[in-house]
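Re: Re: ligand-bound prediction request (bumping)

Still looking for help on this. To restate: I need the protein modeled with HDE bound, output as structure tokens. Inputs repeated here so nobody has to scroll up.
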Amino acid sequence: MSQEPMRPPGAPGAVPPPREQPTEPGDEKPYPKPDQSAPGPRTATGREVETQPDARAQAGDRLTTAQGVPLRETDHSLRAGERGPTLLQDHHLREKVMHFDHERIPERVVHARGAAAHGVFRSYGRASSFCCAQFLQADQETPVFVRFSTVLGSRGSADTVRDTRGFAVKFYTQEGNFDLVGNNIPVFFIQDAIKFPDVIHAGKPHPDREIPQAQSAHDTFWDFVSLHTEAQHHTLWNMSDRGIPRSYRTMEGFGVHTFRLVAEDGSTCLAKFHWKPESGVHSLVWEEAQLAAGIDPDLHRRDLADAIESGALPRWTLGVQLFEDGDATFEGIDLLDPTKIVPEELAPVQPLGELVLTRNPSNYFAETEQVAFHAGHFVRGIDATDDPLLQGRLFSYLDTQITRLGGPNFAQIPVNRPHVPVDDMQRDGFHQQGVHQGVAPYRPNSLDGGCPFLAGESGFIDVPAPVPQSSKTRDTPASFSDHFSQPRMFWRSLSPVEQRHTVDAYAFELSKVYEPAIRERQLEQLARIDSQLCEAVAARLGLPVPSADLGADPGPVESSPALSQVGGRWPVAGRRVAVIVTEQSTGVDAVVSALFDEGVVAAVLSDHAGDVRCADDTVVTAERPLTSARSIEFDAIVVGAGDEQLSGPAAESARLMVAEAYRHAKALGFWGAGADRAAEGLGIVPNEAGVVLGPEPTDVMTEIIELLGGHRCWDRDVLAGTPVG
Ligand code: HDE
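Reply:
Sorry for the wait, this slipped through. Here it is.
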């Protein structure tokens, strides 16, 4: 009996001949299946918007309800008379308030506070011999979306808290989306994903009073890390300057785990990913970070958006350290242990391409909040290893989106959509956007002409990596048990000023711990890392140094110079300098031009905002009054001195600003006839490191820009605590 084939609804063209057997891929495509991606972007009124493809509402010429009904009124509810009760009949009121009531979605359980930007990744084309991923081949440019974050704080917490920072990059490649979901610290607190809820519960606010917010300086955090010695390495990085970055633009990023790369010929190698910021790795000083948390809790968010808007585009180089695939060890380091790094001196970072952030999101919620990263979003050529932390993450990220984004269709949200056709067999579910065609969302099928076909050789490669011959176990390998030699290496790689900051941080954090036993236990762990570090912190806490019979692990103690972040010179574009002027100043234009020429943002400040007529008869426009500016906004401060100095509230603000910048080792400049007197008037001793004085504005600015290139003037480290190192 012959049977008429069923025609897939909406399918173009003639009905194909019936197929009794499932079809195989081939040149002849019997029935092109209609595109099954989510519907194209439309405004609320159905028009396509070219520049912002996903813009919705506020674009049409008429206000409408969510159903597209034009409205003539939206400010007054429908009432029974001017002073009467509101009527339930007011469907617009009901819809408007209903939608508002549900505007909030659950924040991320970790990394809730973030900022993001769009950009592009340009491959140098040097990976083809070891990785076949399309976006790493020659002449490839790939759009990206990058989200930076803190870990512990809520969505409204401050940017500058001491914490790890997330560094998550979504590559919209031509072979689907690849997410590199990394951090600014190359190691993690735990070696096994099963402990993630524990370390996060310990770091989050105490469950009884819900304090402290976005802090590690409390009992439960230090209780956990002092008991889980594998957490000591990551904790030491957090206590170093890496825990308080100056800006997202000045952070390194790390994939943390070891990944497996596959070449076109099927050969494999292991790799660790690194992001190197082209403007250098810079940090805040702790006092500055604390001030910023109150004065400008959005410091990092603002800095990122302003830099992109001003054209000082943030840039990073993506690099890899490569290792032979095999037993996943390198020079005695277990590559599956995420609490270990491989020093760059042993395995150099090979550059693969450049990331440039070019565009701010146009809607925070739609993009930054709804972006869904997943450590398991791999593409052809990149695969997982057996790192037990990575393996657990492969489960967690999909799972969390179901709660956070309300169902399994989050890949259809505009920011998450791949930039290639999606031809999957996923159907239905909450918030389904696709109007899928066809009747056979299964394989094999004959009804939809066998579509979609399998990709064959061009599909994702599951590396047939050998599985260890073993019994099921909850044990960890012996190679995971050395928890101290790498923190020791990190500590010994820091410069004296970085070591001092680290001691200060431990002293600050542990002095906030109420339970004496926890302070003492953490000191014991420090003793196992380095005796000088332990002694310096113990002295600050007024506690005895733990006895030496702690069985310190032997291990390599060499230092890795690449781990220190001071001592170099970096581009100054995108830095911010306060230019303080009075009516007595001269040469302000020359100062502003000198900064502008280097891409530095100059903020002119005076005793009032608006026009200031200077002594050389030029008129400059002050952006703000001094009374509403603070040092933490700026990387350097320069003052246009005249015969008379500032007085009143503006003078007090200038004095505070200059004093803070002095304490925080920032460059200070004074130009003009009365430069010496101006400096002294603001409490600064001339001839100190990082203080530049002179009559000529251009000479002073040349030196200031030179100092900015070194980031801070550590020769004038007035906050230095107990000397160590
Ligand atoms: Fe995450 N992590 N994580 N993490 N992680 C999340 O996913 C998790 C880990 C990282 O900007 C969550 O969508 C587990 C390491 C970043 O949206 C969640 C484990 C590294 C972001 C989650 C880890 C990271 C997250 C929360 C241990 C560095 C923010 C919301 C096995 C390599 C991404 C979400 C963004 C976010 C789970 C460990 C980086 C719950 C279970 C190691 C940058 O799925």
